[in-house]
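Hey, I'm writing a tutorial for new members on how sequence and structure tokens pair up, and I'd like a real worked example in the thread rather than a made-up one. If someone can provide the structure for the chain below, I'll link this post from the tutorial.
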Amino acid sequence: MEMTPEGCGAFVVAKKLAGLSERLRRWAKVCFGSIKLKKLNLLHEVEKLDVLKEARNLSLGELAQELHLLNSLEDIRKQEEINWRQRSRLQWLQEGDENTKFFHSMANGRKCRNLIPGFFHESRLISNPKAVGRMFVNRFQQQFGSKRTWRLKVDLSKLLAHKRHVDLTGLDRPFTMIEVKDAVFSLGGIKPLDRMDSRSTSSTNSGRQSRTTFSSSVRISILEELI
């Protein structure tokens, strides 16, 4: 079932993330099953082989089955450890510690710290979880406003319907001689000969005049090659 929550952007994102988490949880349960149930089944099978081992010697098939069960049980324990380590949100522990009791205490301790068992409202203790939730909702609605049932949406088809047409046919046409000439003579920021200031030609600084003339002659040569 596709989720289509309505409301502000943050509310929609939160609801979709919650729905994704629930779907991933169901998918993991269907594809991988319950780790706890798998562990109990493996322990039961190992216990049956232990009972047989006390009565008689195990056959080769039973020994291979016992080895397979022990390896599977070790994998289950590692998965259980990783699961509880993630739930306890401890990053400084290395994998392989197998201290699941410690992970249990950390995860349950954080849950107890985050739990709000109740609070006093108008000299009256409210401990019912539903009543606590309603009180929080009423408080936030009073502080931030009532719940919005609409979400701002943009219709791109209507937004682009009145867009002005842009003519791009000029991108394929060749450059004109004027454009090429302007581009060549704009190199280095030096004006062409026919646009040079008369004061620059009559300057007494012969070195500067010679460099300007040389640069202009080079640009003229480039322009002639392009023509």
